[in-house]
Amino acid sequence: MRIVVLDGFTLNPGDLSWAAIEKLGETVVYERTRPEEVADRLEGAEIALTNKVVLDAAMLRRLSQTLRYIGVLATGYNVVDVEAASELGICVTNIPAYSTASVAQMVFSHLLNLTNHVAYYTQQAVDEGKWVASQDFCFCDRPLTELAGRTMGLVGLGRIGSAVANIAQAFGMKVVAYTSKRQEELPGYIKKAGMDEIFMQSDVVSLHCPLTEDTRYLVDENRLRMMKKNAILINTGRGPLIDEAAVANALSQGKLGAYAADVLSVEPAQADNPLLSAPRVQLTPHIAWATREARERLMQICALNIAHFIEGNPQNMV
Q1: Is 238 a catalytic residue?
Q2: Closest Cα partner for 70 from 24, 6, 27?
Q3: Residue 166 forms part of a structural domain
Q4: What range does the domain containing 66 cover?
Q5: Which residue is catalytic, options 26, 185, 267, 293?
Q6: pLDDT at 105
Q7: Do 302 and 211 share a domain, yes or no?
Q8: How many domains does the chain have?
Q9: Which residue is catalytic, options 117, 286, 295, 297?
Q10: DSSP of 3-24
Q11: CATH of the domain at 156
Q12: pLDDT tens per residue, range 156-172
């Protein structure tokens, strides 16, 4: 088997080993691949591994004489035309549930920084020297917020949403969730709620639903009007779950407390994205998934997916 990794750098910038995959076939790893390079690099390959490199119907037809398997190095698989792949007999798999703990941790990294201003106070105390110059034993010029007793609203209650709920209740937060699950299926600390109820009641709203035509721009001008004036909105799901211009306007007009996100509608960030110049925005560059532990799990599951395919028993097919 000839295995080609089209964009391996984000998964393994040098701190992991490709050995588990290399054992399964002749492996070629490219750090990045431009669209015009895809066909040449996959020529003669039976197995393609991709994270963000698009494999559309036209490309799959072009490669269909040899390509038999596509492993998506992520949970989301919208970069592959799975319908065309199915028609051509090409197996497509993804990597589920590898980053649950890491993404949930990032949600609270954002939330705690917004409520306790850790980065700000470190800069003021250390870099700016304001604690040294303070007349008091403490230096405090931004209000701190206690999470206990606040309401965490979750849109989506899959693996990550459930992990976030568990952490929220450990902080003493009330948890409400929009979910297809029945109330009796939920842990006692989670109350099922309608979508509008989530946005109206919550002090913090965290998005954990997939991106579909129904959820695109789920948070628009109308939903933002429902939210508490000082509420925090967190998005570690997909950029287009929100209308970025509407969120930027709400922040500029003082109608939203803060917006924290690990994702944008176009990545990498574009210079004209309105969120980059809006107040009270906290962005991380799509790294919630990228702890070493999560990437190691991803690599292990990827190797197992390939091994199962070679054995004729594919797993995690999409």
Answers
A1: yes
A2: 6
A3: yes
A4: 2-98+292-310
A5: 267
A6: 98
A7: no
A8: 2
A9: 286
A10: EEESS-TTT-SSSS--HHHHTT
A11: 3.40.50.720
A12: 999 999 999 999 999 99
